[in-house]
Amino acid sequence: MTSASRTPSQTPPAVPSGAAEGGGPAAPEGRSPGQLMWRRFKRDRPGVVSACVVAFFFLVALAAPLISKVYGKDPTTTYGIDRPGLLNEFGYPVKPNGGISGDFWFGIEPTLGRDVLTQLVYGIRTSLLIAAAATVLCVLTGILIGVTAGYVGGRTDYFLGRFIDLLLAFPSQLSFIAFTPVVYSLFVSPNKETPTYLRVLTLILVLWVLGWMGMARLLRGQVLSLREREFVEAAKVTGASPWRIITKELLPNLWTPILVQSTLMLPTIVTIEAGLSFIGVGILEPTPDWGRMFANGAHYYESDITYIFFPGLAMIAFVVAFNLLGDSVRDAFDPRTAR
Amino acid sequence: MLRFLLRRSLGAIVIVLLISAITFFLFFALPSEPALMSCGKNCTPDAIAVINKNLGLDQPVPVQYWHYMSGIVTGRDFTVGHCPAPCFGYSFSNQQPVWGTIVDRFPTTLSITLGGAAVFLTVGVGIGMLAAAFRGTWIDKFFSSLSLIGNALQIYFVGVIALAVFVSGLHWMDNPAYHPITENPVKWFTGMLIPWLVLSIIFIANYSRMTRSQMIEQLAEDHVRTARAKGLSRRTVFFRYAWRGAMAPIVTIFGIDLGSLFGGAIITEFTFSLHGLGRLAVSSVSETDLPTLMAVMLVGCTAIVVANIVVDAAYAFIDPRVRLA
Known about the structure:
Largest interface: A-B, 47 and 54 residues
Subcellular location (chain B): Cell membrane
Main location (chain B): membrane
Largest sheet of chain A: none
Structural class of chain A: mainly alpha
Oligomer: heterodimer
Mean pLDDT of chain B: 81
GO cellular component, one term (chain B): plasma membrane
Radius of gyration of chain A: 24 Å
Protein name (chain B): ABC transporter permease
Distance between the termini of chain A: 21 Å
Keywords (chain B): Cell membrane, Membrane, Transmembrane, Transmembrane helix, Transport
């Protein structure tokens, strides 16, 4: 066994799968690696708290229509315009602190007078949907390409490696901005409006195409070292097919880096998507979006600074919780790493 | 060294050519009609035909690409006139040569990037070393919780708060703006200060965390222990031995960050309404000004590729174990 390895995400040489499930009468109390991980994770208080926060955000995103119903507002109605007395003649909330009141818990938006709480809840829903879909696609592609490159090796590895290099040389932020309208125009002729669902699909596509390389590189390296281990050799000698070796021997040992990397990837993609909407190439009005709330906030900050704090603080809480969760997941999988 | 630079430059040229070809193809071949995009929502077929002819868009895409790339080297003749040597074509939106706009905008991006990088590199590495030197004490804990928050901050949030506090709240400064350093260095500095600080906050967290973990790793290395055992002072070992080893990976990341910022510190420029390359890219997206967008992409990816070569060369100076061949 290697002494304290440098890469925090390296797994112990594995309980080759099967050993845990089989159990056998000799084992007094067999626990699968998953159970062990779960036990360790439950004892990690910051980990549990951050997991709850993360779960809360996803719950809010899923239950957005329910929240809107219980709370009695929706994100598109312009309350400030419909009801006199909420906005002053300059279009800013009459009440202090962005118009926070018993009716509007997070205040109302300047000019249009929409409800901030439901805007945020639905905005989180849009952003998380895009980010989660892009993350899943990136992770799957990363696994596919990384494991293939690492396991097959040779010329395949070389060409996949050069392909990854090429994609990494694209200026990523610039490419997100530049290629999004190109993809829009693939679906819709430029003199028509792009429907929202196509904008969402386009963003997912762009984030996916330029987002999977890190995961692939990481997994390729892991597979290269795992491939030489005895348990893989043993599987080969027994005549296991490559598919079996990959799914039963390699993948169980790759869950840690995959999970840790995914928990890093998702918040990053959320912030990238928000950035795109902030500069106006992402989701457009009237669909609520987390990132576009920052653009609105930047517009109104001189007279109504309260507005931007809700999306801002929510995003900080979300990213911090996700990063802490990633640390805890890594610790739970691999107790040797010290923070 | 020379061989290394030569080989890497060749590789870089290949990468830039490939990226330019892919980008060009995506821009000019995939969307049904670039002329339609350039001409906007209400456009007559005649106008489209004129645009197509003027821009040479009636030719096959590989030919167009060849004209485009050779135009960068030798200049190019359009029906509207001659476009001198680094010719990136004419903008769809203001009909000016694209290269002029790029030259005009680049100093802003350069100022943001260099100033911001100077701040986040020194402060980030400094904090990281401090945390490593006092590992486990309250200093370390304080900075690591700070970097956890810092890592979650976004320019589009912190930037707006900074504007609200320092510009419209306390009136300490004017709105950030770019003044050429050659004209008025003081104004250049004060105009850029808020963007620099905000840009660095985002990076400091990352750099301090990386420096800390690299330093801790290096301090546990054998050669560092040997140096201590030889009787070298703690300070010498810390700064001359551990620091040198710790810097190599930091330099790599720094090169990549710097390269991608040169292509446009997009969010920063947008938040502070500074007219750099990033903002140019965004405005050319909304105006579907493909020639300008193409040129910014080319500048951006050249910056990344060059930064990578410089980093690898610098790596060899910092860590003599790395051989360039």
